[in-house]
Amino acid sequence: MTHTHVAGSIHADSAARAPSWLRLPSDVNALLQSLWSTGIRKDESGVLTVAGLDVIEIADRVGTPVYVVDEADLRARARAFADAFQGWDVYYAAKSFLCTTVARWVSEEGLGIDVCTGGELAVVQRAGLDLRRVGLHGNNKSVEELWYALSAGVGRIIIDSFDEITKLGQIAEELQIRPRVMVRATTGVEAHTHEYIATAHEDQKFGFSIASGSAADALVACYQQPALELIGIHSHIGSQIFDTEGFQVAARRTLRLHADFAAQTGVELNELDLGGGFGIAYTSADTPSTPAALARSLREIIANECSALGVAVPHLSIEPGRAISGPSTFALYSVGTVKPVALDGGASRLYVAVDGGMSDNIRTALYAAEYSATLASRRSAAPPVLARVVGKHCEGGDILVRDEFLPADIAAGDLLAVPGSGAYSRSMASNYNYVPRPPVIAIRDGQITTLLRRETIEDLLRLDAG
Ligand SMILES: Cc1ncc(COP(=O)(O)O)c(C=O)c1O
To answer: What is the arithmetic mean of pLDDT over 324-338?
Structure first.
């Protein structure tokens, strides 16, 4: 791929090192609006503003790094799912990002919540929500977690193993509570971004395989356990999915299981959950769907599959996480050092090191996720150069944004913003290198609310028993 650029041959060579999806921007200051929350703008001096507040003020008042949530945007995304999927239940996948305030927001917008540990459940309970609208997942729930979920009155438990059926049955008998349960079926469909594979057998830790017959056995085992109320089947096929082909294959396979169970027992189960995984735009290469378009396709798929099998359409649910929390939030960093690194053939790459890194966003290092970034604190007249945004950790793979064009004059003290940082960033954050985790703040009408405060070195030292 060859690019010509006003900055000359070195810049052109560097641009040639960019991945094919990354376009050389005609204006390096411009925002690609589809990557950002609806409340984001750049003012005339190039400063990023969110819901009326500029990032220079945010950095002055809160410091960096910080995750900045556009409250109206997150709420609107939750509401859009509730509206588009009317008649279905929409559970917000808390693993993407959870704190008490966000749990309350999504609940106010009409959503239930899917949790997968006792810790996530405790947050939702502290938020004061109706736990009948909460589902508990997990491939290895402990006795304590199951006990907690049942006594707290969780609305449904998604069963993931035969051990769990036995364990949950015993706890239910002891507590004299009959929990509503779903069986998590593994459909053999694995979907990521634009691709999916549909195989006959599954090689992963979640769920019961349909192909091997263990999903059918698990349904019968739950059905025959009088302490459990079997309500339906659950399937989750992957993440960052942009089309509905994978959902179609998964729906066909789970509904076939549903129909076979009805034929065997005379009972048509009431519910089917299609999981989450709806994709968002991290870069210009991503083309996400809308909740309305997804709802149209999924309704049609289910109606067609049910009619082909001659079964009634069950009550449906989905579990979007990233599509609600992801685009609402950007991470704001301060640039600390800038280093041009020579590449083969005379090209160079600008390494821009910021005051965070893999401890506040592991996704790039963990699964080669792609992100974008923009200079957030000023307008630059310099040409775009191929850059890599890296963190401060002692790890060569400590990369936040693998490939992005940034202004050639980016320098220490500049602020840099990374969109799409709301999902699986703070929730997967660590303290690697004893780096405290950044705060999460929400902006609404120019006002800051702290959702999670900044961790301190003292917080970390308090754990040290020595
Ligand atoms: C069972 C289940 N439901 C929902 C989700 C949410 O996925 P996403 O955030 O991609 O929508 C996940 C994510 O791993 C999941 O495992």
So the answer is: 98
